[in-house]
Amino acid sequence: MAELVERTIYEWQTLMEQGEVSAVQLTDMYLARIAEVDPIINSVAETNGDARDIATALDDERHNKGARSPLHGIPVMVKDNLDSADSMQTTAGSLALAGHVAKEDAFVVQKLRDAGAVLLGKTNLSEWAYFRSTRGCSGWSSRGGQVRNPYALDRNPCGSSSGSGAATAAHVVTATIGTETDGSIVCPSAVNGIVGLKPTIGLVSRTGIVPIAHSQDTAGPMTRSVTDAAAVLSAIVGADPADAVTQDATTQDYRQFLKKDGLKGKRIGVARDYFGKHEGADNVIEDALNALKDCGATVIDPVSIGSLSLFGNAEFELLLYEFKHNLNAYLASHDANVKSLADVIAFNREHADKVLPYFQQELLELAQSKGSLDEEAYQHAKAECLRLSRDEGIDKTIKEHQLDAIVAPTQTPAWMIDPICGDKVIGGCSSPAAMAGYPHITVPAGYVYGLPVGLSFFGTAYREGTLLECAYAFEQATNIRVPPTFQAHAQTL
Q1: Which of 79, 111, 266, 324 does the annotation list as catalytic?
Q2: Structural domains in the chain?
């Protein structure tokens, strides 16, 4: 099992090319690791019964034709809101979708298969991607139960890509796919001590993903290194005829941006609006800022990306409208037991003992009360989101200071798991990039009482390459990540 720790996709690929390990052996190692570790953290919703057969076929193909890509034979898991045309269910963590098996792969899943990845299974998540209750507990779903943080088992893994974050951190798979509407990739990546990359809206297809909001939803890689994030992103990017927003997406090998001197000459703005939430996290990020300077970056401190108090109102209205519209469209096109948001709400009420034992479904009910996307309230909210996050936010700040990227603490350290009273989130920096539809990457930056803290880099549209350069240079200079040891609680107790 020690061989699994911290080895990158490219290192595994080299070993497979040399014949020192096969895809079948790697798959078996991870399945054994899941059996050993996952009962502790509950990150895996389901393993793929076809995984060994897929790995066997890919080993044969490598022998006869060579590898398709750096992901050839690499075990990968996807969040349980991505369709897969196999025996695995797609439920978004909800018992309302229990037994739902998709007839077609999500476009992202198909891209992974085309790249030669072994689809090892699906990860647990916050039910309905955390869009269910005003006091939900991240990482809990009625299908899968509670995901735990592998750094401290009484601490929350954040969400909604909770299982993807915990599974990657705990080495039960090489890499995972998460999804984000606002924070659902970068927050669980930060508090689980891994790298998470939320791409620009339009770079990665949303077809076949249980939705919240088309204005902000995207899938992205969650990995233990920036190197692996680049490899996975390279595999999943591309134009999807069924998702018009991706028509300008062009494939490329993001390894070209993995430069140890990637910060040299970069102008980096410090978004001080997102400091002051936790002194421990602030101290970690202050050290990270010094590392950026040591790597040759010019640090402009401070910069402001707009009024934080205004972001939430417009975004919340937009999410309510789009969730109803998008979920109804998804359910109407799939063979599930529920056909609409109204059906989901009714199912939850009928099965409240299993679905609503800790918290309710206020957000589902609020969304159901909304009208169509033609309503003035929705159109106003959408315009406000773009104005605040782009025109008067990220774009304005980057242009004013001639920045390559903006940095901030991704999230405060993980809070306690509390399904009864819900999350006690102190603060994070995900909203501006999420609302703008712009890229955002988080990298491990340090620890507070053994709990991980991440450094965020975000910028304007389609600047993934620049963010990868910055993140890789920082990662290589600091080498800060320490694997989890599954402590019962944080080091303070």
Answers
A1: 79
A2: 2-478 (3.90.1300.10)
